[in-house]
Amino acid sequence: MFPGLYDDRVTSDLLPQIGAEQPERGDAARNRRLLLDAAALLVAERGVDAVTMDAVACRAGVGKGTVFRRFGNRAGLMLALLDHSERELQQAFMFGPPPLGPGADPVDRLTAYGHARLALVEVQGDVMRAAENTPESRFSAPARAVSLTHIARLLHEAGVDGDHQLLAMSLTATLDATLVLHETRDLGIPVARIEQAWTELVRLITR
C-alpha cells in the first residue's frame, strides 16, 4: 500500500515528491526556466526529435556545457520538461476547482483526472513518450507515484473493494502516453472516444 494513502494530510505531502533537489537560487532557477522554455519552443516548432542539447543551447543563447551541467543528458532534459507538466497537473487535482480538484464526488474526480491526463498526452505526448522510454524512470519516477497515490485514494473514497494499489496501476496503464499516441496516431481513434472509454471504465470499477 502507498505510504500515507489514507492520511488526511496526503494532499499537502504529495507535491514535493516530484524532484528531490534542494531549492534553487534565483539565478539557477531563472537559467533552468530559460533552458526549459527553449526546449519547449523546439518541441512546439519542430517536434521532440529536434530537441538536442546543442539545439537547446543555441536557442537559449548559452554554451552546450551549461545544458549538460543542468540536465546531465537528453533524457534528463525530457524528464525536466515532463516534471513541469506533472507539477501543473498535480496543482490542479490537489488544489484546483472541482471536479478535478477537491470538493467533488470521488468518481467524478477520477473521471476528470483521466480526461486531464489525456489532454496532457495530446499536447505534450511526444515529450512524455521520450521520458517514458528511459528505463530508469518509466515506472519509478516520483511523478508516477504521486498519480498512483491520488488514484488509489479516490478508489478508496469511492468505496471500491480490492487492491487499490494494483487497481490504480491498471487504470494508469490505459493513460500511458505511448499507448495513447498509438491509439490516436496509428489507429486513428479520436481523443473524445478514449475519454468516453475512460469514463465507462471508471464507472464499471466504482459501481
UniProtKB/TrEMBL annotation:
Recall the GO molecular function terms of this protein's record: DNA-binding transcription factor activity; transcription cis-regulatory region binding
Entry-linked InterPro entries = Homeodomain-like_sf (IPR009057), HTH-type_TetR-like_transc_reg (IPR050109), HTH_TetR (IPR001647)
Task: Give any Pfam family that matches.
Answer: TetR_N
Recite the UniProt keywords alphabetically: DNA-binding
The entry's DNA-binding region feature spans 52-71
Stretches assigned to the HTH tetR-type domain: 29-89
For this protein's source organism, the top of the classification is: Bacteria, Bacillati, Actinomycetota, Actinomycetes, Mycobacteriales
Question: What name appears for this protein in its UniProt entry?
Answer: DNA-binding transcriptional regulator, AcrR family
For this protein, the record's Gene3D superfamilies field holds: Tetracycline Repressor, domain 2
